[in-house]
Amino acid sequence: MVMTLVGIYSLYVLITIYTSVMQIGYVNLIKRKTPILLSASDFLKAGNYAVAKEKLAIINTFVDYLIFIMWIGLGLKYLVEQYYTMENAALMNIAIVMSFVVINFVISLPFSYYEKFVIDTKFGFNNSSLGQWMKDTLISFGMTVVLGSLVVWGIYEIISHAQLWWLWSFVFIFALVILINMLYPAFRAMFFDKLIPLEDETLDGEIQNLMDKTGFVSSGVFVSDASKRDNRLNAYFGGFGKAKRVVLFDTLLKKLTTKELLAVLGHELGHFAHGDIYKNIALVGAMLFAMFAIFGNLPDSLYLELGLAKEPYVIMILLMLFMPVLGFIMMPIMGIVSRHNEYEADKMGSELGGSAGAIELANALKKLVTENKSFPLSHPLYIFFHYTHPPVIERLKELGVDVGYIEKSGTEGKCEANI
Length: 419
Prior knowledge:
This protein has helices at 2-30, 40-83, 89-122, 130-161, 165-191, 201-214, 250-255, 258-273, 276-295, 300-306, 312-352, 357-371, 380-386, 392-398; strands at 195-197, 221-224, 235-238, 245-249, 405-406, 413-414. With 419 residues, the protein is mainly α. The protein has one domain (2-195, 269-414). The chain is globular, with a radius of gyration of 23 Å.
């Protein structure tokens, strides 16, 4: 059974790396050809950025695989032995699982640092100081330890006392997912970003009018000081019920015109009107249910092969080890649904903007591509496994933008992207 699980994980790693290699080869081929949406220099720069990120992802995947083999081999057994003399079973479970989490967190730090201070700095994204990064990392670490310990304790109690523990554990974790979605804006504002109410009363009024058209009720429109970390443009709606907030990155306000900004928010309101957030949560729930159902019914022979007792801490660590695999399997399904939702949200966003809504949204999308250095073309296999949004070229076509002729391989033709 152990070899079967190792084989499944190995297949996942091979497909992941193969997909990344295909993407790198595709982008390297296209980036020196006729530029699309971007100037020649920006097109090349965006291609180089995409390749650099993908190369790092390959190394990260390979290291994760080595760490997985280490844990399955002797690492997990060694870790358990360090705490086996603890008398309190609940504390022992928390100590073992959180040690596993902390070790993996520390291993991920060099990748996070390299991405932020080497790749992002090279391509002009990073505005964060080393001190800011260390502060963010320490806050994330502290929250992981504190909240993670509480979650581990909760699952331990469920496994120890419930016959259908996997079902009740799913309910517990799914409830936490919903709670996190509700509290995310408040937590982010409390620990990471400074949020201030939108000071532009005219823009605030126009946003309120836009929200009224879809019945969206929020606790306010806020601006995040995201530029202290990087130059990317973004906005998000967070929370449920009266806790909903509209958060605009200050970078977005600087780069988009009022009409373009309203078109972007109209797109986000389209997600709200179509209930996409609930659809996404339902998909996450389906993935969690499948994960707990599978690992809640693994044969006892697996634990014998691992040389470990079928204890809550082993079950929880196995769940975390294989979560990326199940997420990768589910991603194409979630991607298909999400890309469909994006087209529908674009449609509503253009309608909310009136007769020029499609033009403003298209202009905003092109600015997002330029400012975020997003390479506008990708290998079809990469899109299938990784894209939650349709390629911007396809979104522009749906908005009625004449992008010109693009040959299927993406290596011929010219795209002017004119309305």
